[in-house]
From TrEMBL:
Keywords noted in UniProt: Cell inner membrane, Cell membrane, Hydrolase, Membrane, Transmembrane, Transmembrane helix, Transport
The protein's Enzyme Commission number: 3.1.3.1
Primary site of residence: membrane
Classification via InterPro entries: BPD_transp_1_N, MetI-like, MetI-like_sf
GO molecular function, one term: dipeptide transmembrane transporter activity
Membrane topology: Multi-pass membrane protein
UniProt cross-references to PANTHER family, sorted A to Z: DIPEPTIDE TRANSPORT SYSTEM PERMEASE PROTEIN DPPB-RELATED
Enzyme class at the top of the EC tree: hydrolase
Native organism: Serratia proteamaculans (strain 568)
Descriptive protein name: Alkaline phosphatase
ABC transmembrane type-1 domain mapped to chain residues: 108-340
Classification via Pfam families: BPD_transp_1, BPD_transp_1_N
GO cellular component: plasma membrane
Entry similarity comment: Belongs to the binding-protein-dependent transport system permease family. OppBC subfamily.
Length: 351
C-alpha cells in the first residue's frame, strides 16, 4: 500500500468516526430528556414514599422537598440535573445518601460479569448452530434450529427463568435458586478484590468457592443469553446462506478446495461481519433483560438496583443509573460501528 493510499484510508476512517461521534451528542440530550420526563411522570414523590405508613407533616414534607430540590419548577430541575451531569456529579441517593456513582460501580461489575457469561454462552452456541443450519439447509437439524431460535426469541424472560428454576433448581436440585454465591462463601474485604465473583473466588476463595460461583452463574446466564442466542443463530444462518451462494465460493469448490476449508476460511470469515454488528446491538437487549433476570435470581446488579430505586422514587439513582447504562450502550454501538467500518471499507464511504 502506497503512502498516499494509507493517508487516504486513515482520513476516511477519521471522517467515519467523526460522523458517528456527531450522533452521540443529540442522542445524549435525548436520553437526559426522556429519563428526566419518565421519572417525574411517575405518580407519588420520594418523601411520601420514604415516610411510609408513619406519614409526615406538611411542614416537614415541604422542608424535605426543598432540601432535595424537588420544589423547583421542572425546567429548573432539568437544567440543574444536566449541569451536574456535565460536571461529573450524578447526584446522591435519596435513601442511602451515598453517591450514585459509588452505588453504580459494584452493581455494574455484577451485571457485567453476568452479561459477559451470557454473551459467551450465546456466541459459543449460536454461531456453530447457525453455521450447521446453513450448511445443512432443509434438513431436520435446520428446521429444528430455526424453530428453537424463533421460540427463544419470543419466549418471555420471566416465564423462562421461573421454569428453569422449577425444573433445574427445585425438581432436580442441580443449581442454586438465587444469588451470586452461597452464604458459606466468605471473601475478606481487605484483599484486592476485583468485584467479579468468578475471578475473586478463583484467586482468593477456599476450595469449592469457584465451583459454587459457577453453579450460581449457570441459570441466570442461560436465561439472559437466550434472546441473543436466538438472534445470533438466525443471523449466522442467514449470512452464511448468502455467502455460500456467492461466485467465489463456487469457484473455490470447483478448484477442489475441501468443504471444511470453504466453510471455515472462505465463507464463515465473511459471514461473520453482520453477526459482529448484531452481537453489539444485543448489548441493549441484554441490559433490558437483566432487569427481569436479576429480579428473578436475586442477582445484585444494575437491573435489580434500578427496579428498587424506581419503586421508592429515588430520582437521582434512576436518572443517573439509566444515563450510565445508556452511555454504555452508545459506547458499545459506537465501537461496533467503528470495528465494522475497519473490516468493511464500503461502510466508511456511505454518507
Amino acid at each position: 500500500m502506497s503512502c498516499r493510499a494509507l493517508i487516504q484510508r486513515v482520513r476516511d476512517m477519521l471522517q467515519f468516526i467523526l460522523r458517528r461521534l456527531g450522533l452521540v451528542i443529540p442522542t445524549f440530550i435525548g436520553i437526559t430528556l426522556l429519563t428526566f420526563a419518565f421519572v417525574h411522570m411517575i405518580p407519588g414523590d420520594p418523601v411520601t414514599i420514604m415516610a411510609g405508613e408513619r406519614g409526615i407533616s406538611a411542614e416537614r414534607h415541604a422542608h424535605l422537598m426543598a432540601e432535595m430540590g424537588l420544589d423547583k419548577p421542572l425546567y429548573q430541575q432539568y437544567f440543574t440535573y444536566v449541569s451536574n451531569v456535565l460536571h461529573g456529579d450524578l447526584g446522591t441517593s435519596l435513601k442511602s445518601r451515598i453517591s450514585v456513582w459509588e452505588e453504580f460501580v459494584p452493581r455494574f461489575k455484577a451485571t457485567l460479569e453476568l452479561g459477559l457469561c451470557a454473551m459467551i454462552f450465546a456466541v459459543l452456541v449460536g454461531i456453530p448452530v447457525g453455521v450447521l443450519a446453513a450448511v445443512r439447509r432443509g434438513s431436520i437439524f435446520d428446521h429444528t434450529a430455526v424453530g428453537i431460535s424463533l421460540t427463544g426469541y419470543s419466549m418471555p424472560i420471566f416465564w423462562w427463568g421461573m421454569m428453569l428454576i422449577m425444573l433445574v433448581s427445585v425438581q432436580l436440585n442441580l443449581t442454586p435458586v438465587s444469588g451470586r454465591v452461597s452464604d458459606t462463601v466468605f471473601l475478606d474485604d481487605s484483599l484486592p478484590l476485583t468485584g467479579f465473583m468468578l475471578i475473586d473466588t478463583l484467586i482468593w476463595g477456599e476450595p469449592g468457592d469457584f465451583a459454587d460461583a459457577v453453579m450460581h452463574m449457570i441459570l441466570p446466564a442461560i436465561v439472559l443469553g437466550t434472546i441473543p442466542l436466538a438472534v445470533i443463530v438466525r443471523m449466522t444462518r442467514s449470512s452464511m446462506l448468502e455467502v455460500l451462494g456467492e461466485d467465489y465460493i463456487r469457484t473455490a469448490r470447483a478448484k477442489g478446495v475441501s468443504r471444511m476449508r470453504v466453510i471455515v476460511v472462505h465463507a464463515l470469515r465473511n459471514a461473520l461481519l453482520p453477526v459482529v454488528t448484531v452481537i453489539g446491538l444485543q448489548v441493549g437487549t441484554m441490559l433490558a433483560g437483566a432487569i427481569l433476570t436479576e429480579t428473578i435470581f436475586s442477582w445484585p446488579g444494575l437491573g435489580r438496583w434500578l427496579m428498587d430505586a424506581l419503586q421508592r422514587r429515588d430520582y437521582p439513582v434512576v436518572q443517573g443509573g439509566v444515563l450510565l447504562v445508556a452511555c454504555m450502550i452508545i459506547l458499545v454501538n459506537l465501537l461496533v460501528d467503528v470495528l465494522y467500518g475497519v473490516v468493511n471499507p464500503r461502510i466508511r464511504h456511505k454518507k
